[in-house]
Design goal:
The complex is a heterotetramer, with two copies of chain A and two copies of chain B. Chain A is α/β, with parallel strands linked by helices. Chain A is about 25% helix and about 25% strand. In chain A, helix 2 (about 35-45) packs parallel to helix 3 (about 60-65) and helix 5 (about 105-115) packs across helix 6 (about 180-185). Chain B has helices at about 10-20, 90-100, 135-145, 205-210; strands at about 30, 50-55, 55-60, 80-90, 105-110, 115, 120, 145-150, 160-165, 175-180, 185-190, 190-200. Chain B starts with 11 loop residues before the first helix and ends in a 7-residue tail after the last helix. The chains are: A alpha/beta, B alpha/beta.
């Protein structure tokens, strides 16, 4: 029997090693796997490259991972936040590296990583500083920039419903980058609000097929970042 | 309701309403954060726009009533939204396939600078120490068929935002179609900028004075 | 009100012009929009480039479009069929051109067309005759071939449920290439088993968002190719 | 049940059963059309394989009972199949993302020729007038982690199918891991072909005689 369930978030993130590239699902706090991130902080892996659209909020979740000095390199499209000083301070102090990637290029690079496409051309960023030093090419009357795939050692993902084969569904705009990151990581670790039996998710409605998922842990009532921030919490508590 | 501007020129609401008039019925529209969001409040009678938000929703509705917010239903500005009947959710690669693939008809964006050739700068001052943050803007300007800019005509310190050449880092080259400011509507034509319309109480000379590039 | 419904398959395919590139959904007969294809035969457009995984079966549907001499160029991965001599005969007679594309490359080229990606690298076909004359590139220790996007003037698509905004769902493996072709065509024409009101398809379950669809016509009981073939039918009847 | 071969060597069923023994528990598996499909009937006790079919289904089950066929539920060979609880449907780009992206563990394919370096030819004789048809084979051989070949050891006219160099057009270069024939199991190692096992009643010499490349 194939059973990808694990008993705890600690067990789920146990394999992550120092120096790993870790993709973290979520767009801001929505879809962010906060319990897995906190478990990763507890676990202690460091020198991580983190891939996320943003850099976290307040001093919890992704911002806490960064604030606790575990991330040496950030790949993201929008590192500014009205709710977090963690990244800006480290960045200005030269203590964290930033690879700034336009949002659609970030999504496409991650998809390419998952789909075995090592490079592709996109019109995005041509003529801007973000295309400097990159290969340009004229095709069909347009100018395009060559972008490379992005793959990860681990993806930390939050979903709505999972089954023990790793099939996933998401909730509304919490879907965002997560299905792509599941594809692009060698090991995909998922926290699910609910784990059900195979077959309970309609095969037509599966968003992430189980082949892209390695470990699933149930977290029925995930923490809400903005509430923690309003309460002034910071992780570790 | 459109709040009239206190002095000469258009209010933010009037600017948004003016831009909305140029968006055709049935258009798929992406609205940037800030003043562009106001466009949704001024859809002309008899038209329907379908709103796309790049974080993965087509068929975005108005903001929810207080207390009705769904924490997992947000827009690209990370604010709570609603959805209309016939909405759909999708992941970021599909969302940006819509953008990059030319499927959206119109996007309305803010600007720090627009050049006479339609270059747009709206993501960074390029100052040392500034945290650069680009988000989806570079994809929107290359992918969406018509890029409209909504912006104050000059900066807070009175500098023109419509310029011969952008001095800030670009978001995209030759991407803007029209500029809607508090003072005027300006078209980016092949031969340069064309003044289409001035706000009530604003003279063409005043617009030219406050514009850093020639206006035909 | 946005309403993409049209009253008949004839009206649906009316805009197709001679010389168009037409993508046709379906994998073999499964998912093939047979009523739209027959309407296109009636409509008379010729000199078409057709894109499909196969070349049709018997003398109905896509095979009939080809057999009636409307297709001058075929882009597909598997033009052989145990049920059709239409394509092989025209091909051997030099009366139809064939661009043979590996199935995954075909899918990815169509997706790229829809996603605004003009070219990408893939490991598929490297070292084989199908990569001859194409640009090769070494990336990350592998060798890859450059492939170009594929876009169409029209896509003819069969789906299960549609709403008047053009949101679509499919049935089981009838999904195949259709969601990709909807993205890659300037005008996407869909026959739906059932058309419902907006909101009746759960926003989480929409497979093709309406932005990719232009015209929808209801065909409640589509013909079944294999039954027609068993009956020895050929189109036009 | 495995039908024993009438003479020396393995039957098609025995070949399939032998290959199945080398597939690990929990593997994601794609089975080519023909003899490879038989592998699904010989899953060793205590193991579960999850079957992918490239036309858009993960969690493919056995063929349906007669009369139970669903015309829109088929495999890559366009034959009716079933699905297991926990199956999922997806479009072709996602399906080939699974293949090309290295997410499948094993595929089992037929062969016209396999070379000592693991080159595979299985899609065309290259003869003039032949209709070339490649399908998903080229994606499978470059994308799937382990490519197993199931084939008769020689052609109907007695020619070796395992050769020094393929003379037919290639499906892929250096892609095959192991070859299961009616006579033997052969590994494609870095230094060349290695004979791992012979079928009952078949001598190593016979295998070498019928193989067009050196066997270590």
């Amino acid at each position: 029997m194939i059973d990808k369930r694990v008993g705890s978030v600690a067990e789920a993130v146990a394999p992550v090693t120092d120096g790993s590239v870790v993709m973290v699902g979520g767009f801001g706090e929505v879809g962010s796997p906060i319990e897995l991130i906190h478990a990763l902080i507890d676990q202690g892996a460091k020198d991580l490259t983190a891939v996320n659209n943003n850099t976290g909020n307040g001093e919890v979740g992704l911002a806490a991972l960064i604030g606790n000095g575990r991330v040496t390199r950030m790949v993201c499209s929008y590192p500014r936040s009205s709710h977090s000083k963690v990244f800006p301070e480290l960045y200005r102090a030269g203590r964290i590296e930033l690879e700034l990637v336009p949002q659609g290029t970030l999504a496409e690079r991650i998809r390419a990583g998952g789909a075995g496409i090592p490079a592709f051309y996109t019109p995005c960023s041509v003529g801007t500083p973000l295309a400097e030093g990159k290969e340009l090419r004229d095709l069909d009357g347009g100018t395009y920039v060559l972008e490379r795939w992005l793959r990860a050692d681990y993806a930390l993902i939050k979903c709505e419903v999972a089954d023990r084969l790793g099939n996933l569904t998401y909730n509304k705009t919490a879907r965002n980058f997560s299905p792509l990151m599941c594809m692009a990581a060698a090991t995909t670790i998922v926290q699910a609000r609910r784990i059900v039996e195979p077959g309970e998710i309609d095969p037509e409605h599966v968003v992430t097929p189980g082949i892209f998922v390695d470990r699933v842990v149930e977290v029925p009532d995930p923490l809400v970042e903005s509430r923690l921030i309003a309460e002034g919490r910071s992780y570790p508590w | 309701m459109v709040t009239p501007s206190p002095g000469a020129g258009w209010s933010r609401e009037e600017m948004a309403a003016r831009a909305a008039r140029d968006i055709p019925d049935g258009a798929y529209v992406n609205l940037g954060i800030g003043i562009p969001e106001l466009v949704a409040r001024f859809v002309p009678e008899g038209r329907t726009f379908l709103y796309h938000t790049e974080n993965g929703l087509l068929g975005m509705g108005p903001p929810p009533a207080p207390g009705e917010e769904d924490p997992e239903l947000i827009n690209a500005g990370k604010r709570p939204v609603t959805m209309i009947p016939g909405a759909s959710f999708f992941h970021h690669a599909d969302s940006f396939a819509m953008i990059r693939g030319g499927h959206l008809d119109v996007c309305v964006l803010g600007a720090m600078q627009v050049s006479r050739e339609g270059d747009l700068a709206n993501w960074s001052t390029g100052e040392p120490g500034a945290i650069p943050a680009v988000g989806g803007a570079m994809d929107l300007v290359v992918g969406v068929k018509t890029v409209l800019v909504l912006t104050q005509h000059v900066t807070k310190t009175g500098e023109p935002k419509i310029v011969e050449r952008c001095t800030y880092p670009l978001t995209g080259r030759r991407v803007v179609s029209r500029i809607y400011t508090d003072l005027a509507v300006i078209e980016v034509a092949r031969e340069g900028l064309r003044l289409l319309e001035t706000a009530p109480g604003v003279t063409e000379d005043e617009v030219r004075d406050k514009t850093g590039a020639p206006l035909a």
